[in-house]
Amino acid sequence: MNKPIRKAVVPVAGFGTRLLPVTKSVPKELLPIVDVPAIQVIVEECIASGIEEVIFITARGKAGIVDHFDYSYELETYLAEKNKPRALETVRRVSSMIRTIAVRQKEPLGFGHAILCAKEVVGDEPFIIVLPDDIISSKVPVIRQMVDVYEKYGQGVVSVMRVDREDVSNYGIVDGESWAEGLYRVRTLVEKPSPDIAPSNLAIIGRYILPPIIFEYLEEAAEKHGVPIQLTDALARLAHDRALIGFEFEGERHDTGDRLGLITANIDYALKREDIGPELKEFLRKKHEAGEF
């Protein structure tokens, strides 16, 4: 019987250079989706999918991410004294959401190295990697969709989506074959290929369920190739030695590490809010009628 997926590894050590200048002083993961930090949206997806522990791979300047999920005595005391029960409940809910652990990646030695930093905390069990830039709006959380696939087949799973051919050089691309609706047997993976040599237009999006042997593959890749350590190399070996499933998820993905993606995520989530959605729709309607878009 497969071990359950209990732990999520969330790398948050990046500089966020695509969103400068705001990310010079504010971690991109704390930028808001309406009034909720982007990283909280990710954690809420984990919770809704049955994840019990989130492991943040952090770096210098990212302490605010961990602090966001911590108990804040001063703020809670202030809100209690000012008789602000709704705000107090909001703060308390965040601090009690889920168990979090922070592991420092002291040097930027690649995405694979960031995952390798979680080895001792993850231990000998399968886990999911969640990239915080990829916020996906869906009826059923994408992590839950992937866990269902893992529980059925017992193999590693990567989330994929079709992208325009001219955009394949921005992604890791799957080379595989279709064997069920929305499922692909991955043969290998190509990191950011040019459009003329890309094996497909199936791009890997930031969700991966992996067995613990991936750490062994990453360590061997480091010994063989040095740094930076790429997760793609370890995934290609996993696909060759065992099996790796490409899963075409249901949902709308926003790349919040990008200016336009951050804006579209805010609009998408705001429109779904009962408190501000109707007014936003009316605002957009008036803009459209005025010929501004």
Describe the fold and architecture.
The chain is α/β, with parallel strands linked by helices. It has a single domain (7-289), classed as Spore Coat Polysaccharide Biosynthesis Protein SpsA, Chain A. 37% of the residues lie in helices and 25% in strands. The protein is built from 11 helices and 13 strands. It has helices at residues 38-48, 63-68, 73-81, 85-95, 111-116, 119-122, 142-153, 213-225, 231-241, 259-271, 277-289; strands at 7-11, 32-33, 36-37, 53-58, 99-104, 127-130, 134-137, 156-162, 172-180, 183-191, 202-210, 244-248, 252-255. Strands 5-4-1-6-11-8-12-10-9 form a 9-stranded mixed β-sheet. A hairpin with a 2-residue loop joins strand 9 and strand 10 (183-191). Helix 3 packs antiparallel against helix 4 (85-95). The longest helix has 13 residues, at 213-225. It is globular, with a radius of gyration of 20 Å. The termini are far apart. The model has no long low-confidence stretch (mean pLDDT 92).
What are the SSEs and their pairings?
Blueprint: E1 7-11, E2 32-33, E3 36-37, H1 38-48, E4 53-58, H2 63-68, H3 73-81, H4 85-95, E5 99-104, H5 111-116, H6 119-122, E6 127-130, E7 134-137, H7 142-153, E8 156-162, E9 172-180, E10 183-191, E11 202-210, H8 213-225, H9 231-241, E12 244-248, E13 252-255, H10 259-271, H11 277-289
Parallel strand pairs: 1-4, 1-6, 4-5, 8-12
Antiparallel strand pairs: 2-3, 6-11, 7-13, 8-11, 9-10, 10-12
**How many domain modules?**
1
Report how far the terminal alpha carbons are from each other: 54 Å
CATH class: Alpha Beta
Low-confidence stretches: none
For the secondary structure, the number of strands is 13
pLDDT averaged residue by residue = 92
Report the principal-axis shape: globular
Radius of gyration: 20 Å
Query: How would you classify the helix and strand content by structural class?
Result: alpha/beta
Level of helix content? Answer: 25-40%
Q: List the total number of helices.
A: 11
Q: The CATH topology, please?
A: Spore Coat Polysaccharide Biosynthesis Protein SpsA, Chain A
Q: CATH H level: which superfamily?
A: Spore Coat Polysaccharide Biosynthesis Protein SpsA, Chain A
Q: What topology, given as strand order, has the largest sheet?
A: 5-4-1-6-11-8-12-10-9
